Amino acid sequence: MTSENNGNRKPGHPSGKEQKSRKPNRLIDESSPYLQQHAWNPVDWYSWGDEALERARRENRMIFLSIGYSSCHWCHVMERESFEDAHSARLLNKHFVNIKVDREERPDVDAVYMEALQMMTGQGGWPLNVWLTPDQVPIFAGTYFPPQDMHGRPGFPSVVTRLAQVWEEQPDRVRKQADEMRKALASDIYDHLDPARIREEHLQRAYQGYAQSFDETDGGFSGAPKFPSAMGIGFLLRYGHQPGTPGDKSHQDAHSSAHHMALFSLEKMISGGIYDQVGGGFHRYSTDSQWLVPHFEKMLYDNALLLMVLAEAAQLTGRELFRRTIDETITFLNREMRHPEGAYYSALDADTEGEEGKFYTFTYEELREQLDDATFALVSEHYGVQPGGNWEGVSVLHRAIPLEELARKSGSDPAELQRQLDTARQQLLSCRDRRERPGLDDKIITSWNALLLIALCRCSRLLDRDPGDAVRLGTFLAEKAVQDDTLYRIIDRDGKAKQPGFLDDYALLADGFSHLFEITGEMRWLSHSLSLTEKMIGRFHDKEKTAFRYHPSDGEQLVAQTRDLFDNAQPGGSTAAITALYRVGQLAGKPEWTRMAVSAMEPLSETAATHPNAFGYLLQTMHRLLYPGREIVLVPGKDHAGPPANQFLSAWREHYDPNSLVITLPAGADPKSAGYPEPYADKTARDGKTTAYICESFQCRAPVHTPDAFRKELAT
């Protein structure tokens, strides 16, 4: 398996002339693009592993641990300023064992030391730079350090020198501090949580939390920097839809407000610079509160999570805006981030040629040169282009004036204006493609691909999109990521599976395969899902605490273990596990799994209600628990007898129904002989005709054979 050359010399890679006078360090043999970026640093880097850790113990040296990822802007800055600097490198090499970690390959290592950083400073971020005792206990941590002392802030050489001095002169003091940190890291949050039965009141409080932080002018749920909050939007879409007491106006107002917050936030993001107006797809976050200037890196998981909620918004509203954004985002992913065999790469860098956003922005003059006068006038008005630009002399394209308003002003047909804009976007995309491209992190991460698998399945089920992309992705993961009895987290550029998976890898892929079963009805996908769920329980479930560990019980033992409870940029491992366990338990008719999920959910219910921004994914599952929806099984008729199954699906799509499971069995399937679980054993095409079964906890009503009868049953 090979990846395409993206044409971008990685940060830290010297030119041919420089290479003759410099030797690479150990990282030259690593497959991680991030570690490769540091392979030509004068720092004597190790990757995380026995060689480095044993050397630290043997020589009684402190460890300097630096954690980042390939598309991290400030990681690149610090590399140029400090890790490429000969003086800083000499200091590090003289006093420390230096270890570089790709946080995306080793999220377990990152989680432990990020927790330490937050304990020490109250903040987090990357690059994460930590100094450890020889037995890996953190004693000092920070993020970006400037190359020299400035504005009362110590520069990197000063920090390195001081820590080396303290270790040499006051080792007992350092070890005492390390003992205190070890105890703090060993604390288990589950010891401080009280289980509470999940109630409607928890969802109400979570909604109120989002309402209090909602930006009524620009959407979203914070000031600058502003993140997409896709998981919270997913919760608000569900909360806005749940049933209430007839005639209760306050209840109705709250639910209408929930939908408004979700949809308005999506609209504002789509109109802003955080959305790539030329190439499609979403950047990481906005540096301002108006969604105008993004941090330009593009992450697979952001686009996956946003596709999920865009699909629901499109089904709920029927609006072309959301459908079009889905089409453009999937087109971008397939064009720029897809491996030839159907999986997806991790990220595109924010920087090119050392400048953030250079690939994505245009000057006023560039646009004039690329477009004819009439098209330029339309593009500049719609996308807010002005001489001098709107950010550092260039223009970040955004939808400054809505297309409908432009059409009204000019008396034009909106469809014709859209056609002209589409043509202009293709011209600008061709122009952009001639530039030096952003660095591509070409490793394939299981959990991130599993998120996209879920998203593609939802787009297929909710919007009747072709499921081909989802099936190809699922097939790749089933064949490449699952090897013998182990799920692996990484498929590197050479096609090699590496690093046994963590909780989120198992949970999200089990969930992803369950979605594939839902849209195809093929038993192989449910079998994969059941197998991974069973392994997840065996390797990660903590029976004593009725909770989940992030690290496998048979994996490497770090200085501390983490739970990974919070939904931040991605679903937390624990909430992903709860969601998968509950959903797969529902699909397969395994009530013992849904009970296990509830037992793990209940200790988090109060915290999720109080801090909803940190539990958006879990809140969706809490909503499913209280409003579980139905199981709908469609069995196509033999030899095309009766209406096709897609007519029943079209009837179901007429109403937003986020918590129901809709399984379409293959035509001619015999559930009894094909190994389907017991709930499907009697689901056959009655009298050879297409048959729809509507069930609750797999207690089913009389089957129906026509879309009209199906609609009536759905309405009751």
What would you say about this model in short?
This protein has 716 residues and is α+β, with helices and mostly antiparallel strands. Helix content is 48%, strand content 11%. The chain is globular.
Radius of gyration using CA atoms only: 27 Å
Shape: globular
Count up the helices. Answer: 27
- The CATH topology label of the largest domain is Glycosyltransferase
What is the structural class? alpha+beta
Question: Could you describe the 3D structure shown?
Answer:
With 716 residues, the protein is of the alpha+beta class. The protein folds into 4 domains: 16-187, Glutaredoxin (3-Layer(aba) Sandwich); 200-336 and 443-626, Glycosyltransferase; 360-434, no CATH class; 631-715. The protein is built from 27 helices and 22 strands. The strands form 7 sheets. A 5-stranded mixed beta sheet has the order 1-3-2-4-5, with helices on both faces. The longest helix is centred in the middle third of the chain and has 23 residues, at 249-271.
List the helices and strands and how they pair.
Elements: H1 16-20, H2 33-37, E1 45-47, H3 50-59, E2 62-68, H4 73-83, H5 86-95, E3 96-102, H6 107-121, E4 128-132, E5 138-142, H7 156-169, H8 171-186, H9 200-213, H10 230-239, H11 249-271, E6 285-286, E7 294-295, E8 298-299, H12 300-317, H13 320-336, E9 347-348, E10 351-352, E11 355-356, H14 364-370, H15 373-382, H16 403-410, H17 414-433, E12 440-441, E13 444-445, H18 446-463, H19 468-481, E14 482-483, E15 486-491, E16 497-500, H20 503-520, H21 523-540, E17 541-542, E18 547-548, H22 573-588, H23 591-601, H24 605-610, H25 616-626, E19 631-635, H26 645-653, E20 661-664, E21 691-696, E22 699-700, H27 707-715
